[in-house]
Amino acid sequence: MxxxxxxxxxxxxxxxxxxxxxxLESAEKCGVGLEIKTNLExxxxxxxxxxxxxxxxxxxLAARLEMSGLPVFNSAKSIDLCDDKAKTYLxxxxxxxxxxxxxxxxxxxxxxxxxxxxxxxNILGLPLVFKECFGSFGEQVYLCKSKADIxxxxxxxxxxxxxxxxxxxxxxxxxxxxxxxxAAAVRRENKNDFRANVTNGGHMAPYTPTDSEKETxxxxxxxxGLTFGGVDILAGGFLCEVNSNAHIINIMNCTGxxxxxxxxxxxxxxx
Length: 271
Fold this sequence. Notes:
By secondary structure, the protein is an alpha+beta fold. It is built from ten helices and 13 strands. A five-stranded antiparallel beta sheet has the order 11-10-9-12-13, with helices on both faces. Helix 4 (76-83) packs across helix 5 (85-92).
């Protein structure tokens, strides 16, 4: 079985290179011939393989590869639903428990959102969480304590406003799911930030999820069509977000569970 590891040409640093090298080494141990290709390279060529492990968010490229007949994991549709926080909320609305969420109206340039912000505060209360629809590692996510605070973060980029789950400030659960099964879980905590992300200074410890948390994680991944994914759950069982290509090195170092071979085994079973 031969595959392509699709990565972003412009994310070339130690964090990502370590992950990509681990995936290549894991594939070799699993008897999978995996070749790394960047999205820039793939944009300029037609390629052949048994599958593509798409560790990027270049959704248009993923869709083009699928149209050429290549099985892509995760699929372009699944990556798209996870990459856009508004789409994630809509896709999972009524399926799993989520914080109350308002999606900002579309604008084509920086505009006056005062009326929307006034209404959002009346519905969600303060403080509330401002999230740009596109972002990773907790970036472009802010805890806003006033209307003025919200307005300072608004640009022409799409965003959502969410109810702040105070009981989960600086704490969440990350659950890795592969093939509809729980693979590993950690509890993350950051005493200096309302975001629990390790990238922002948080720490993690091995965790045994409750049956309810397991159900939420599996239901979310199934609804989004994910072959594998990382699901973040807040206190009270509220789903925070779903990652189509979560960074698996930290959770491996914490729990001893390597997600990579589980992904290759699942891909093999689907081909």
